[in-house]
Amino acid sequence: MSKKERIDRIREAFKEFKVTGYEVAKHCPVTETGVNKILNGTIVRPNDSTLEILESYLQENYGLSIPWLQTGKGPKIVPVIPSEADFKSFSDNERQAIIKELSIFIAYHKKQFFEDEVFKSIVEQRAYEMVIDIMKKDSQR
Questions:
Q1: Percent of the chain surpassing pLDDT 70
Q2: What is the pTM of this model?
Q3: CA geometry: angle at 131 spanning 88 and 86, to 5°?
Q4: What is the C-alpha to C-alpha distance for residues 71 and 73, in angstroms, rounded to an integer?
């Protein structure tokens, strides 16, 4: 993939998530002006290190996949999967939102995932455990 296509994907993500150069500059070692020049095309060949900073920001804050940003291949969004301890500390609504997000992600990429027998087995086991947990909670109410 070309650098131009890589920059186009970064621009697309900034637009989709309404990210500003100011927002990135507050959290990353880049200037607002530099980011804006990349986004509006004034800088057509930014350093790879600057693109990596932008990609990392998009990954950390919006769940975008760095391989997708860099190459256009693979899933665009990679959901953040909390640890089991964190998951248990969330409210029921938060847990349901995470389950929904993961379900949508898996459904969208099911062909890729379910070709892998290990992944398929893990998902089936976890789904079963989660359904049992939900049923137990419902019966206690």
A1: 93
A2: 0.63
A3: 15
A4: 5
